[in-house]
């Protein structure tokens, strides 16, 4: 393979532990123009956070392409309504770019609310709306008054920052709902689960763990989400925030206004799942029964999956993985989960990590791991080959890179269909990795066919 040169302006966003250079990771910055970043836009960041609220109307105010790009983007599962799976758009064209799109937005909103009777509506601003200057908030206020449901503007113009800014715009919109519902039947031992999107049914698994521990789950934000649950989320006594970036903003806002503390958690891998549950039990330390039930749950769940994990480990021992996903917190968990099944991580990176995240990631990684922030496809291709990865873990945009290079792939993002979180999720993850890495197809697709 021809060696792929790196863009000079991106050199500080790449660190090879084996190189011995000082660790000064540049991150938390806008993507370099022309780099073809793997990152999504601000609008997409908002969309992925709010999309799983299944009884809300989601209207994309912009050209049809923005709606098509994020149509059913996460495939997040709902136990009831399916309204979130529709991708409504105001389909702005040249006429609206010249004369404004507010009338069209008003018409679309009122017609859709009449047709679908949603519990609330989210209206997403896209790039073009930021350019032509439609007053989306004013239209939302008018429709909210007329239709008597919450109509929330999401200020997510695609060009105005990074995907992380989209998370914040989504949290700002959600915060408009929190605090408006009835909290009378909420127990003192209660939590909200933030940052869990129920892509493969994970929210149901995690909710079940907490219920077994005797902890009431007031709302999951936003997996299998319901507007009424969001409205009464301020009645919980603790917020448990999964993932490093997506919903920390909301947790901070709820702490400031309602005095609800928050802790961070990850449910990927046995170690982190157990830690998450024990941390919640520790928060309710004046209820020792919660701790006792947690110990039983963890002991039994780990014992149920370990025999199979040991069998898989015997096959995968010494294999190498590349991990490139959205949030850095997930990378930490994946490094530990892969180690449990005998694999080393030779490439680790994220779209949205900050300086603390990368320092922690570096400490967790093996001595020859390369760490990447906001990578592009050519960088990923180069290091995956140079480091000899047998498996790539990523999302929809990393899948073709892996397949073109002739190595196994595990989707740990929007397109997975089985739950990968929790104890059962770790078993599913190990099975998928095992199947992909040991597939005979990679003997046919030779890596040497890749040329740059
Ligand atoms: S909001 Fe802008 S960057 Fe995002 S999909 Fe639409 S046009 Fe593209």
From TrEMBL:
<keyword id="KW-0535">Nitrogen fixation</keyword>
<dbReference type="GO" id="GO:0016163">
    <property type="term" value="F:nitrogenase activity"/>
</dbReference>
<protein>
    <recommendedName>
        <fullName>Nitrogenase iron-molybdenum cofactor biosynthesis protein NifE</fullName>
    </recommendedName>
</protein>
<dbReference type="GO" id="GO:0065003">
    <property type="term" value="P:protein-containing complex assembly"/>
</dbReference>
<dbReference type="InterPro" id="IPR000318">
    <property type="entry name" value="Nase_comp1_CS"/>
</dbReference>
<dbReference type="Pfam" id="PF00148">
    <property type="entry name" value="Oxidored_nitro"/>
</dbReference>
<feature type="domain" description="Nitrogenase/oxidoreductase component 1">
    <location>
        <begin position="41"/>
        <end position="433"/>
    </location>
</feature>
<dbReference type="InterPro" id="IPR000510">
    <property type="entry name" value="Nase/OxRdtase_comp1"/>
</dbReference>
<comment type="similarity">
    <text>Belongs to the NifD/NifK/NifE/NifN family.</text>
</comment>
<comment type="function">
    <text>This protein may play a role in the biosynthesis of the prosthetic group of nitrogenase (FeMo cofactor).</text>
</comment>
<dbReference type="InterPro" id="IPR005973">
    <property type="entry name" value="NifE"/>
</dbReference>
<dbReference type="InterPro" id="IPR049939">
    <property type="entry name" value="NifE-like"/>
</dbReference>
<comment type="pathway">
    <text>Cofactor biosynthesis; Fe-Mo cofactor biosynthesis.</text>
</comment>
